[in-house]
Write a structure and sequence with these properties.
By secondary structure, the chain is an alpha/beta fold. It folds into 2 domains: 189 residues, 3-Layer(aba) Sandwich (Rossmann fold), CATH 3.40.50; 88 residues, formyl-coa transferase, domain 3, CATH 3.30.1540. It is built from 14 helices and 10 strands. It has a 3-stranded parallel beta sheet. It has a 3-stranded antiparallel beta sheet with strand order 6-7-8. Strand 6 and strand 7 form a beta hairpin. Helix 5 packs across helix 6 and helix 8 crosses helix 11.
């Protein structure tokens, strides 16, 4: 994969955190194994004409487009709101597409999800679309011009909740850690000041929770009999569960509730989560081969490469790429 960069380089090269030699972990995590070339407009066009796939997100920098390319080429445009419809980015779309209005506590202000959900989802949409278009190109000889906009991903993320608004049933708003559809589905404080998430997606989970909390009498309480009843008595259900959870440690509740057949997890910080041996075992985190980083990097791919190759230096492969044209 050739990454065509401007002379100043990808902005991500300046993003923290850094290795001791000043290299950006952010850039290397997202650009492992790519080749970097700094090309003029003519060479960029020649490269595109020989490619199977072109992915671009800055059409204003090019003097050519999908319509100028060979018929079999797959051209994927990634924009904010669609070609020519103005700029947008992850935080702005979280604001304008309702995601921030859904995030936070009931009596608190809107909050931004502090991870680039929309950016990542758009990348996955683009990858899926490119694969489908390549399959079509192999069979028919015709490529495609794919329009992958961040607003499409933002809409998808809120689509199931938007059904309540579109149908007129109710206008969803902030609900904290809870669910619009299921009770219980919330976070509770344990005796050791740690927190656990308790969910009952099915009645079997509710029965298991009652057993684990030693509150079998709740099974005969009409206010708790079925999810509809618990939705109608949400505050009471959560209050009763909170009282019991507060009597033992988070780890004890995780063990007891899950052993009974319920669903319970202890909340973890990012550090704990990313140091879980399971992530390394599954190839989701690892150290770069020959890199200058003394810490592991996320492997932002499901390809699970055997060796993690560092990202390229700016223009490192320009000569090599030009020789191939």
């Amino acid at each position: 994969m050739v990454k065509v960069e401007p002379e100043r380089g990808d902005e991500g090269r300046a993003f923290r955190p850094f290795a001791p030699d000043g290299e950006s972990a952010f850039f290397h995590a997202l650009n492992r194994g790519k080749r970097s070339a700094v090309l003029d407009a003519g060479d960029a066009r020649r490269l595109a004409e020989q490619a199977d796939v072109v992915i671009e997100n800055a059409p204003e920098r090019l003097d050519f487009g999908a319509g100028d390319m060979p018929e079999k080429l797959v051209w994927c445009s990634i924009t904010g709101q669609g070609p020519g419809r103005g700029r947008a980015m992850d935080p702005s779309l979280q604001a304008t597409m309702g995601l921030m209005e859904l995030t936070g506590e009931r009596d608190g202000p809107p909050l931004r999800v502090p991870v680039p959900l929309i950016d990542f989802m758009t990348g996955m949409y683009a990858a899926q679309s490119v694969l489908a278009a390549l399959w079509q190109a192999e069979r028919s000889g015709r490529g495609a011009h794919l329009d992958c906009a961040l607003i499409d991903s933002a809409a998808t993320l809120t689509s199931t909740v938007a059904l309540f608004s579109l149908s007129g049933e109710f206008e969803p708003n902030r609900i904290g850690t809870e669910s619009y559809l299921r009770v219980p589905s919330a976070v509770f404080a344990a005796a050791d000041s740690e927190h656990v998430q308790v969910i009952a997606l099915h009645e079997a989970h509710w029965r298991a929770l009652c057993d684990a909390l030693d509150r079998q009498e709740w099974l005969d309480d009409s206010r708790f009999a079925g999810n509809d009843a618990r939705l109608a008595n949400r505050e009471l259900v959560n209050e009763r569960i909170a009282e019991v959870i507060a009597t033992a440690s988070a780890d004890e509740w995780v063990e007891r509730i899950n052993a009974a057949g319920g669903m319970c997890q202890r909340l973890r910080g990012l550090g704990d989560a990313w140091r879980d041996p399971l992530l390394a075992e599954r190839g989701l985190v690892g150290k770069l081969d020959g890199g200058s980083f003394g810490f592991p990097l996320p492997v932002v791919s499901l390809a699970r490469p055997g060796k993690l190759v560092p990202g390229p230096a700016l223009g490192q492969h320009t000569g090599e790429v030009l020789a191939e044209l």
